[in-house]
Amino acid sequence: MIFGRLLHRIGEKWFNVQKKTSEGVQSARDAVFRGGILLVSAILVVWVSIFLYTAFYYAYMPSMSYVRPVHLQFKSCDETKGICSFPSAYVQLTKKQQLLMVGQPYKVNLHLEMPESPANKELGMFMVCAQLRSRDGVLVEHACRPAMLHYKSTLLHMLTTLTFSPMMIFGTSEEKQIIVLELFGNFEEDQSHPVTVIYVEIQSRHVEFYSATLMINAHLSGLRYLMFHWPVLSSFIGIGTNLFFIALICILSYLHFATEEDLTEENFGYEKGEPEEDKDLKSSSDLSSDSSSLEDTSMLEELPKSQDESQSTLSTDPIIRKSGYIQELSGLYSETSTSSGIAK
Prior knowledge:
This protein is an alpha+beta fold. Among the domains are: 1-60; 65-219, Jelly Rolls (Sandwich). It is 58% helix and 20% strand. It is built from 7 helices and 8 strands. The strands form 2 sheets. The protein has a 4-stranded antiparallel beta sheet with strand order 1-8-3-6, with no helix packed on it. A 4-stranded antiparallel beta sheet has the order 2-7-4-5, with no helix packed on it. A hairpin with a 4-residue loop joins β4 (126-134) and β5. α1 packs across α6, α5 (223-229) packs across α6 (231-316) and α6 (231-316) packs across α7 (318-343). The model is unreliable at 272-285, 287-325 and 339-344 (pLDDT under 50).
């Protein structure tokens, strides 16, 4: 007996140990699974936040600058030296429908590379005009700006030449100036007539130049200025904001689904409990039907008693007996009258 009890206790302890180990393994599996889901969700939320900020940056921020070469053309003179027409050029910005962003101000500058030649020094000031045109040839905006070489005295010119003479000998430096003309300072694109062509004209036949370049720079302000000049700070703020709102949406949706699951479980338990209540209702209805049947039987039993009592009262009460006798006499009289009528 003692040996059997010991074996029974050992078996119970072993069963408890197995149960605890299985429960611990299951809880560890659940914890690892939940941790994995949480980690994957966090990584997904972070990547979605980064993607949203990147997409917003490239959709909201315009291209900072556009550079187009200006190939100036003119008509050569047949009899004399020089040119016989104003140098001009049509600069095509894009072959698409639109290049510039609507609502964003731009600065349109012309970089004119001119030599410090005697002809340009004697030329003095000259005019440079530009026209912004759409694809269908509509004139959107027109502007003209004066230009000239930067003044240098004879002494300053000699000192500059002596200082940079070694580099000028080796070809790394030249006697030239780059004139920057701001043709349009605050131009905004018109959505109905987007600019695709710029017409440039130098209104002088004695000007000398090496090359010309058209530069279009975006003039940023507000949020775009902050996003361009402080990209790291703006990226941290934008990604953090996206992360906060996405995490808030995920938490609210999780709570919503959790409450729905709890409600469905309660409804399911309530539906499971309904048959018992139906049984109780059926039993109560059966009891009520039995009681009603008993009442009916009792009522039926009481009916003959009441009839007997009524008969007994008729037999005992003389007034009631007299009325019954009168009724019998009237019935006999009616029968005799009907029989006599039939005989006639």
